Amino acid sequence: MREREFWQLLEEVFGRVYGRSLARDQRLTALDAMTVIEALDAGVEPRVVWNVLCDQMEIPNSRRWGKDHNAPPLPAA
Fold it and tell me: Taking the model in full, what pTM does it have?
């Protein structure tokens, strides 16, 4: 997942205003209490940030990837 795709999904799943607010204000406990923006700036993979945010916000897999998106492949270990 590219960062551009992350922002598109954020707006699609959460809405533009609420999604941007979450990105700025929501602390992600699984990522050392960083915000979405801090985690992305720190180099955390957008897919990881997305999954952590969705887990924390209890977004089910059926809604997590939006209408026309497929789950991106997992990063190579």
Answer: 0.84
